[in-house]
Design brief:
Order of helices and strands: EEEHHEEEEEEEEHHHE
Low-confidence stretches: none
Number of helices: 5
Strand order of the largest sheet: 1-12-11-6-7
Distance between the termini: 9 Å
Largest sheet: 5 strands, antiparallel
Number of strands: 12
Radius of gyration: 18 Å
Structural class: alpha+beta
């Protein structure tokens, strides 16, 4: 098998509930991390809907492009895998938005989504929000996703220090239709792909991430080391990671 993956998700050291959801399937070549937002607005439900809908969409769109229904149109500048993945994320966004419209209990809920679909040697990377995908290639860690967020400063009370907070500018479920970031890369044998929530990349520096995943340890051990390192840093948020190793094209 040309792919080997492991995923782990943890509530962290402060939160009582884990609103992150992960999915990894080497046979499908599909990997997803979704971070529910909104807390009381049931971010866990939004993340669950996002993850399940993407999986179902990818499963149902396997086969020739001509046999697939493209509700958002087929974009010729993308590969078939890129079209499948972007369509899956857009459908997931619509499903979360619809659920939010059904009940006050779910109104305003949303989730970040980052997803990877590997087909042959090509990895299609899609994201909405600030969960990330990193590519460890040639000994270097590169970010492939785009953060949909902005930093805002808040004045401090007398004698205190100002506070900088990161605010999401886009998420799955925040509106009926959403733009999805897409990037495609060609993988080489030995490459790694890391999907993670901001509960990880917000508290572990990228050079430290590279050091932890660039070892000779089994994939599961490297993934769990990321979680453990985040917890040692305090892990005030839920933390999730899916690590994928590419061994080369199938023979």
């Amino acid at each position: 098998m040309p792919l080997l993956s492991h995923g782990s998700s943890d509530a962290g050291c402060v939160r009582q509930q884990n609103e992150d959801r992960i999915f990894f399937d080497d046979a499908l070549g599909l990997y997803v991390v979704s971070d529910g937002i909104g807390g009381r607005r049931r971010g866990d439900v939004a993340a669950e809907i996002s993850t399940n809908t993407i999986r179902e969409s990818i499963e149902s769109s396997a086969g020739p492009a001509a046999a697939v229904t493209w509700p958002y149109g087929y974009l010729p500048h993308m590969s078939l895998s890129g079209n499948r993945l972007v369509t899956a994320v857009k459908i997931a966004n619509r499903e979360v938005w619809r659920r939010g419209e059904e009940s006050l209990q779910f109104l305003g809920m949303g989730a970040t989504v980052t997803a990877v679909l590997v087909d042959g040697t090509t990895a299609a990377v899609a994201n909405v929000g600030d969960s990330r995908v990193y590519w460890f290639h040639g000994g270097r860690l590169q970010r492939l996703s785009v953060d949909d967020s902005t930093s805002m400063g808040f004045p401090a009370a007398a004698g205190g220090t100002s506070v900088v907070r990161t605010m999401l500018t886009r998420s799955a479920g925040s509106q009926e239709n959403v733009d999805v970031h897409l990037k495609e890369v060609e993988l080489s044998a030995g490459d790694l792909l890391l999907l993670c929530s901001d509960g990880l990349h917000g508290y572990v520096a990228e050079d430290r991430i590279a050091a932890l995943i660039g070892t000779a340890q089994p994939i599961a051990a490297r993934t769990e080391a990321l979680i453990a390192d985040t917890r040692s840093a305090g892990a005030p948020d839920n933390v999730s990671a899916v690590l994928v190793q590419f061994f080369g094209p199938s023979l």
